[in-house]
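Input/output pair, single chain:
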Amino acid sequence: MEQEKLGETGWRGSREGWLDAAYESLVEAGVDAVRVLPLSRRLKLSRTSFYWFFADREELLAALVDLWRSKNTGNLVKQTESYAGSIAEAILNVFDCWLDPKLFDSRFEFAVRSWAQQSPDVAREIDAADTVRLEALQAMFIRFGFEPFAADVRARTIYLTQIGYISMKTEETLATRMARIPKYVEIFTGREPTAGEMKRFCARHGYLPSADAAQDAAQ
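Output:
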């Protein structure tokens, strides 16, 4: 009730609040749900308050693309450049993205890729992001001595596998995914992660392996 009164008397919220509401609408129901009136109702704000922060809906949509680009592409590239003592550890740094939505938001990724199917401009953004991400993964392999063509193929194998996970909305328990990760690393790099590398990786994600995890993953 207090929030409604503030809305009625001209409280405008914030740019971040409108953008957060747009994000939630996008990931829940697609880009057609990202419209000013439904967002104002969601926020319990007057419709006119939107225009203090955005010129129009198109500017809001552009801000969503900027947010996606900064979060998903920006963080993925940073992870490929993070310190690693081996290629296996470097891949585990990248895998942090798949397990931590603060680094890489799979729901956001799916929503933007779905949006791209009806927007040529967003489709071009997707193509550009794919190129940047693949180049970053390839450069990571090259740093560890892989020749460029092999590095490119391995980069594509990793990336397309994960985009497939996202597109299929694959769901796994943390235990199942963690049990499979050492084999993914071996397949992608030709090298198994050491026990120490896996221990550090698991610790970053607050995971304690159980004796049954590998058996569960194989089923």
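Residues 65-218 form one domain. The first helix runs from residue 2 to 8.
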